[in-house]
Amino acid sequence: MRGIVRAVAEVLGWWIALLTLWIMLISTVGTLELAVGSAAALAAACAARAARRAAGR
Fold first, then answer.
1. 1-24 burial by CB neighbour count: b if 16+ within 10 A, else e?
2. In the chain, where are the structural domains located?
3. Tens digit of pLDDT per residue, the chain (57 long)?
């Protein structure tokens, strides 16, 4: 159970950081931009976790 909580916390942390970066870099923050940014940040957060696990850390 602890492993699942750690995985969710890691992906959530990456997602928050990446979404914040996305919002800072776009010129206007509308609903569509927020939805696309959320989806892109989630995909990148999952990829970051997978890359970290593949590296053995």
1. eeeeeeeeebbeebbeebbeebee
2. 2-54
3. 898 999 999 999 999 999 999 999 998 889 999 999 999 999 999 999 999 999 986
